[in-house]
Amino acid sequence: MTNPLLLFFARPSTRQHGVRRPRERVRVPTEVPSTDAIFLVLRRMRTPLVVLVAIFSISVFGLALIPGKGGQRISPFDAFYFISYTATTIGFGEIVPFTPIQRLWVTFSIYSTVVGWAYAIGTLLALFQDASFREAVATQRFRRRVLTIKEPFFIVAGYGQSGRAVCAELDEAGRRMVVIDSDKDRVDKLSSDQLHADVPGIDADASLPGVLGLAGLGLPNCEGVIALTDDDDVNLAVVMCVDLLRPELPVLARCHSRVTEERMHDFSAAAVINPSDRFGGYLLLAMQRPTTFHLVSWLMSSAGMPLQARREDKHDGRWIVAAEGHFRDEICNDLSRAGQEVEWVDPHEGYPELRGATGFIAGSDSDTLNLAMAEHARLVDPEIFVVVRQHSTERRALVRALDIDSVYTPSDLVASEVLARVVTPTFWTFVEHALGQDEDWAAAALTRLTDRCGRKAPERDLVTIDLRNAPALTRWVRNHDFRLCDLLRDPEDRERMLAVVPLVLMRDGTPHHMPDEDMLLRPGDQVLVAGRLGALASMTPVLLQETAVEHAATGRDVPITWVGRAVTRAVERRRQRRA
């Protein structure tokens, strides 16, 4: 039977779908509502250039037609040569002695060309200040930067709090990305954010197919799209564009309403994250299955975050919800579905009556008001379960100081789930599996993790047993036995296990969660491990070095040099023959 809590994290569309008819493959457009920079230059500079050429031509032919001393005229080429260095203000002197009439004409030509140059240069400088021209130049520069990306990359639409958090973690994981945001100030933050890679960014409407195409949607190395704007319509448009133009690419999208969520599901979005609805699921998980909640939330938190002590409060009873907007509707609906007594109050009409209540949710649109209501609830009843909604992460220190039981920050929730799905997709299968297990399984998994890795949130890494990522280990497992526990041994001391726990072993597309460490590894296996950063790094020799693999598997101290290994094998064969 399907676990009802799991539906909060992977709610399918409730609409009935038939078989989709085949669609015509359409080329991803790259044209945007922005004029080409070269065309703009030619159009704006057309009149100044015509005026300048006309002045230059009249000056050259006029000088060639005026008779000089002795009635001789200079050739058109000589006139062109003289006017060229004169009109450009270089100056060189007369090529032949001029008559007064010729000098008068040259004087007229000098002033005329100066006026022409001033007109042309002034127009060019005005063009450089023109917003449409600068936008066209920026668009072409953005396009060139995208085309220079040779690695797989993600398109991130929206660079708000969630977008910045996702980009920072993707950059930390060595993944490339391209950013689209309609707010120029947000795009400008890309240059000031401390990112390792050069991240192309453009301020444009991400809902336009041409903008997504410009960002690389049609390129073969685009591996997915993440829609995190604050506008549900824009996010829906991004999902539509990806599904219709590149249906093979995964798209993850954020939304605020269930109507939009259903519409996104109709376009086969890989994941639709409604933060208000998601938080309701997490809250019910904390109430009904606290151990599972502790395990999942701890593993999804940032590395190094301590495991909080679990409260043994009873959460069944009357809940006071002082909230507004979509968050109020979602949280009240989730609590009611869980069989809780829910009382909604307007957060702007003073403090509610909290005596006898089990829990209190401060979810107004003002972070300051929410903190004030949370402190009042603590003063009225120190044992009440307090939930606070925070729009911005800038007041995180105040929230920690208040010792809030549960904090809902939409940007953090969206970012953590997106990263769990994108950076290590195998990890999300573990989360979904954990949500479907009972409390005893979660308690055993949590104990296994904390006993070996400590009480700080571990790092995660995916070990792939192939010739590219683990050549030495791959060659060994083709001909010899190598257990999963051998991978976790300390290369310096085989009897000591590293602070690493295997979460998932993926074999032939089938996941084995919390696998038995006595399992034999095979070529092609993928092992998702969690552990301390230093311990994860200590696994590298077993993946790359023949001697480290043999020592981990057999316990024999194998010489590092080829000659030493040959002598050791010869001695071993001799001992076997004598035996």
UniProtKB/TrEMBL annotation:
Membrane topology: Multi-pass membrane protein
Keyword terms of this UniProt record: Ion channel, Ion transport, Membrane, Transmembrane, Transmembrane helix, Transport
Transmembrane segments annotated in the record for this chain: 49-67, 79-98, 104-128
Top-level lineage group: Bacteria
Record's signal peptide: none
InterPro entries: K_chnl_dom, NAD(P)-bd_dom_sf, RCK_N, Trk_Ktr_HKT_K-transport
Any single biological process term in GO: monoatomic ion transmembrane transport
Pfam families, A to Z: Ion_trans_2, TrkA_N
Main location: membrane
Compartment annotation: Cell membrane
PROSITE patterns tied to this protein: RCK_N
Protein name: Potassium channel family protein
